[in-house]
Fold:
Amino acid sequence: MRSDDSSTLYDRLTQPLVREHGELRPATWPEALDRAAAGFRQGVERHGPNSFGMLSCARATNEMNFMAQKFTRAVIGTNNVDSCNRTCHAPSVAGLAAAFGSGGGTSSYAEIEDTDLIVIWGGNPRFAHPIFFQHVLKGVRRGARLFVVDPRRTSTAEWADRWLGLNVGTDIPLAHAVGREILHAGLANETFVERATTGLEEYRALVEPWTLTAAEAETGVPAEAIRELAHSYARAERAQLCWTLGITEHHNATDNVRALINLALLTGHVGRHGSGLNPLRGQNNVQGGGDMGAIPDRLAGFQDLLDPGVRARFEEAWGRPIQGSRGRNLTQMFEAMETGEIRTLYVIGENPVQSEPETHKTTSRLRALDHLVVQDIFLTRTAELADVVLPASASWCESDGTFTNSERRVQLVRKALDPPEGARDDIEIMCELATRLGHDWERPSAERIWDEVRSLSPMHRGMSYARLAEHSGIQWPCYSEDTLEPSYLHARLWSTDPGERGEPAPFGIVGHSPPVDLLDEDFPFRLTTGRRLDDYNTGVQTSGFSSPLRRGELLDLSPEDAVKLGVRDGETVRVTSRRGSVLVPVSVTDAMRPGLVFMTFHFPDQVDTQLLTIDATDPIAGTAEYKAAAVRIERVEHAEEARATAAAS
Amino acid sequence: MTEPVLLAPPRRLIDATIDGEPVRVPEGTTVLEACAGAGTEIPTLCYGDTLTPRNACRVCVVEVEGARTLAPACSRKLEPGMSVATDSERVRHSRRMVLELLGSSVDLSTTPGVAEWNERYGADPDRFGPRAEPAALGVRDARRAGEHEPGDGTEAETVEQPAKVDNDLYVRDYSKCIMCYKCVDACGDQWQNTFAIGVAGRGFDARISTEHDVSLPDSACVYCGNCVEVCPTGALSFATEFEMRREGTWDEGRQTETTTVCTYCGVGCNLTLHVQDNRIVKVTSPHDNPVTHGNLCIKGRFGFQHVQRRGEGERR
Structure:
């Protein structure tokens, strides 16, 4: 049996902790809550409400996220609320919203089974979203063709008719070349383009330089394969374009998303049954957290914070004015900690020390805070830095509520277990804090919170708990209790009536911008990151079970490079980027192309991959470029010999 | 804005008779479905509501008027004018035989319904004599086609052998395997497409096996547990369930089943948590759920332990 010694085991927190003389010590709930509230009150009094930040949890329920943003806006009075969706799919939301005015995937899982062509771009759902991939395989077995675009020949790619192995960070040139080929071959859906889009001429000019030859040179994908993808996508009766973090964890992620959306606009593969655009979310409630307004620029129902009419409805319901300007997103909050503009931070169920790039920088920024409150089920590395630690319950099995999945389906979460003695429900804790801060919040039931959401968010209005149970969840939008909308979005774009059609979808005019961390002689390898099948994110949850598949952190390396470097499978090597250096065992696999290496960040206590990654971020959505670092690889013995020689001389 | 949504073409209704009573059902309805609609219970073992029928166990057979052989209700579609008997002497005899042959050779102690069916059909699995000694671990797996020695009739042949415990997540207790093929289909092209297991051997030596009978950790298995989900006899079970049964603490009467949503990615799989004494002891998924159809991955199926790490130093 393979060992799982490389994982750290975490025990549930059952007692609040407070910092005294620099150390965390156990405390009673009243003391911890008083300390937590006092710190926030002091911060607001001294530095104003905008010195407060809230990191809400993309893994907690919609109800928790709604209350977290309400706490931020109505109790503290700022819009500084965000969650780790920033580290994965905010660009998908930003890109889709820019094109269609709404930030959700446009199709449904069932439609994937009912389509003619499936393109999976920058994702490995066979490992990262296995049950979604079962829907893909149903489609494939019914005759759909599958194209996989990914730098690695992943287990998803093994199922594909065509695998396009592109160089990391060249998604835009590839997409533009596909668009150009569609235009030049006369395969654009002219009716749709004319009716439902704007900016075609600019787009035509934008993609014109990306000939098949130019794209092959930049992306590494043979011209013939690019041509085939273009023709297949354009000619398919119905086609699905799906993407994951390979598109969004880049410094220009929103541009990547726009470049993919352009292809759907060009061919009319959106707004119809079986044709659509699907970002696959990495966490259970990334979609819902944003939908609930736990983001700095939107209120519940993805409603624009800058719209005074929208704000007025929330202000009336909450009896408190809402600031009319956007708050700081997660990335900006971390920057503002360094400049002293953010002084107090309330972290619910997040572990930024281990999930954000550049671990040391994140830690020093959190240390600079006047007051850090962490509410979690485990004493994570982030919680270890806190002034107050509040033991929470696990939302998915110890509380009632709802999650929203990647196909916009709101589903009931039900309490199956009592939390361990001493831990409390997230919402209950928040209500206690609100009450201490002068807002008398009684602990409402999950259903009452949800009914408040429904009263404020038109797209959730028809989703009563009873109906959610009856229909195995309901996809948004659902405007009334008597109707269900189609399983796909944006059918309006196909209407012949301009009034019904509404705002046309603009082509995204986005240019190529290669990865920030350049390859050179000193750092010749491209390091990209992702997930393996049996582990998850920073490993806090998955370390709890003993997976026979688990092998700990590994550096996946191509056989060609292994020969060149003279390393064997299993040998430990030193991987160094411009920011840091780690030791990691090598796994030689032909899933890697020469020049490309791969690691996860599932085992931060064994190998801290985030020491290597870069925090260049997308200017629009704020997502970090986890997918592209430049590294060099050295044999440990070899390097030590060299050092010894240098010391001797 | 409305647009026609693709639906299956309408199915015409057909008339038939079940046990003398007229039934009217949509074309394509199986005898089993029609019986369920009419309130007639048919025993099933190899039938799976998410799988294509394999017709392996023959316990659901019914008599179709005019047909030479009995027909499996799970896969036989009702036809216009068809007359079906679900409890005729031929049917009862056949079901009794199936239950006796399975019961004499397989451990059906954790198969729901068997005791009641034995009673109903007068099945006596012990009538073939005392049970043969279980095989030692690996013996059945090493048998080759064509080398089977028939018994002398003094004892009942058995498939029993020690349970295979080669990983911390689930156990394969092939003493309880009736060779229904459901695990093979769930692992193969019907759902998981991993193809880690198949049927090896012939005749009474046939058994479910990994490639070359390697242990699960050395096989293609990805521990989705979708085989465990469909196993009708408890041959495949969670390590937690196996342990608790061995200790005598497994008690379904004290368990609650609560359906919630998995947190390991954004797909939104529904999990049914089986909880005993405030501990999760097993995870399944509703077979009619539009996201999962009863399928999960390793994290959804087995990744629940972290919420139960409550500082008691336990490792499950």
